[in-house]
């Protein structure tokens, strides 16, 4: 099946002036990706755990894999926006430069003198150079030469980070979420990803294409990560609560979405607090209007607290209900079809760890998945889902799949 992406460009090809996302599987018109760059070359066995990677990727191959991923999407008519391009464009606005530099210069780490020297250096360089510094980070030996002695510079190892690299920018899913015609800038839970929020925020605030985009959910509220947010159907959100998104984050997001009329039901879904299931989309993603691919080990113990508006600016939290039942009811369908990963417990666990559940729908019944998850992909095809396979041998070392590596900006409405 070839998903025809009904583009809403103007005749001159300018982008859709009113992008929106109301589902997980509507034909994907525009998506935000980040092609991994030199920030991945900062990973070493000494820091990969702290930087949330399970290995040290071969960067050139990871870039080839990512280029292939982007081409698969373009081949189905999806417009691919690259984060680095948007960041450079946004940084032509002095307000964006100020915000980006403010987020990167840490006086507590550098001391006042070195911080001032770094700030003036970053202020003096081009948008392209500044974007590189903000994404790749800077070591102490890469800091600009400064007059006078600096105890801080002398006492740090030259390859210590003066500005941390952001290797997890690759996972654009987590730092912003489109709900309807608004974008939520999330609040990432772990220090290694904290600064991604600031970069994502300045892109949406200052890039000409997004200046008019409304905001959902107050930025910098309690932690919510996009990997935990699924748009099950127009007006129906599921938010995983586990290793990253907290109950307070889920409540804040739910209140915002209900208040703004972006949802009528939000399902708060408790998930095990561990790295293998760090986000809801590591165990469950939608592959069709009424179908999910799900890790069988969680299927029977996945519950949800339905949250709805009380009609008076507050919310009503309903009793805990099996997730599949609560989702079907909120979506107004008889039931959700569940496609399991893997044939047996070991295969299922292996393929879940390798992001077999983390599919990206390009359209209803058409998904991108890692080729390595052979059994899960076969079961998807047995269930009538077309699978576009991509390599993830190096990309996967960051513990993320096609859904993690993508942030839909515009999906056509489901007919
Ligand atoms: N939506 C997702 N499942 N994102 C995966 C993010 C992986 C990243 N290394 C982290 O630990 O945060």
From TrEMBL:
Pathway membership: Amino-acid degradation; L-arginine degradation via ADI pathway; carbamoyl phosphate from L-arginine: step 1/2
Give the EC number(s) listed in the UniProt record. Answer: 3.5.3.6
Q: What is its main location?
A: cytoplasm
Basic and acidic residues composition-biased segments: 1-12
Region entry Disordered, spans: 1-24
Q: What's a single GO MF annotation on this record?
A: arginine deiminase activity
User: Which compartment or compartments is the protein found in?
Assistant: Cytoplasm
Supply one GO CC term from the record: cytoplasm
| Reaction it catalyzes | L-arginine + H2O = L-citrulline + NH4(+)
Query: Entry's InterPro entries?
Result: Arg_deiminase
Q: Which GO annotations describe the biological process of this protein? A: L-arginine deiminase pathway
Which UniProt keywords are listed? Arginine metabolism, Cytoplasm, Hydrolase
What positions constitute the catalytic site?
404 (amidino-cysteine intermediate)
Q: Which Gene3D superfamilies match?
A: Arginine deiminase, L-arginine/glycine Amidinotransferase, Chain A
PANTHER family (UniProt xref): ARGININE DEIMINASE
Describe the family membership recorded for this protein in Swiss-Prot or TrEMBL: Belongs to the arginine deiminase family.
Name used for this protein in its record: Arginine deiminase
């Amino acid at each position: 099946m070839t998903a025809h992406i009904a583009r809403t460009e103007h005749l001159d090809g300018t982008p859709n002036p009113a992008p929106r996302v109301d589902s997980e599987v509507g034909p994907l018109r525009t998506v935000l990706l980040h092609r991994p760059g030199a920030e991945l070359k900062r990973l070493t066995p000494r820091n990969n755990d702290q930087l949330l990677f399970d290995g040290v990727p071969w960067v050139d191959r990871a870039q080839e894999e990512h280029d292939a991923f982007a081409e698969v999407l373009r081949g189905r008519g999806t417009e691919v926006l690259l984060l680095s391009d948007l960041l450079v464009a946004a940084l032509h606005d002095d307000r964006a430069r100020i915000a980006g530099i403010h987020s990167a210069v840490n006086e507590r780490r550098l001391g006042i003198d070195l911080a001032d020297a770094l700030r003036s250096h970053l202020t003096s360089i081009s948008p392209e150079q500044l974007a590189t510094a903000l994404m790749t980070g800077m070591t102490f030996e890469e800091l600009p030469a400064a007059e006078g002695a600096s105890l801080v510079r002398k006492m740090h190892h030259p390859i210590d980070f003066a500005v941390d690299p952001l290797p997890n920018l690759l996972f654009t899913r987590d730092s912003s979420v489109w709900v309807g015609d608004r974008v939520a800038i999330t609040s990432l839970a772990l220090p290694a990803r904290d600064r991604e929020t600031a970069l994502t925020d300045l892109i949406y605030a200052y890039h000409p294409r997004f200046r008019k985009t409304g905001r959902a959910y107050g930025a910098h509220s309690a932690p919510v990560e996009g990997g935990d947010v699924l748009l099950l159907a127009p007006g129906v959100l599921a938010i995983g609560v586990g290793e990253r998104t907290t109950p307070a984050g889920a409540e804040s997001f739910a209140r915002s979405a209900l208040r703004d009329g972006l949802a009528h039901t939000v399902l708060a879904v408790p998930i095990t607090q561990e790295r293998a299931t760090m986000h809801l989309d590591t165990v469950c993603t939608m592959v069709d209007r009424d179908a999910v691919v799900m890790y069988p080990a969680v299927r029977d113990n996945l519950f949800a607290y339905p949250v709805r508006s009380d009609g008076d600016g507050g919310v009503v939290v309903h009793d805990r209900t099996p997730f599949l039942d609560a989702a079907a009811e909120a979506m107004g369908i008889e039931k959700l079809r569940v496609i399991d990963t893997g044939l047996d417990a070991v295969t299922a666990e292996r393929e879940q760890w390798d992001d077999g559940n983390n599919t990206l729908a390009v359209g209803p019944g058409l998904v991108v998945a890692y080729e390595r998850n052979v059994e899960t992909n076969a079961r998807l095809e047995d269930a009538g889902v077309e699978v576009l396979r991509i390599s993830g041998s190096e990309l996967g070392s960051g513990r993320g799949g096609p859904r993690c590596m993508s942030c839909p900006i515009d999906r056509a409405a489901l007919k």
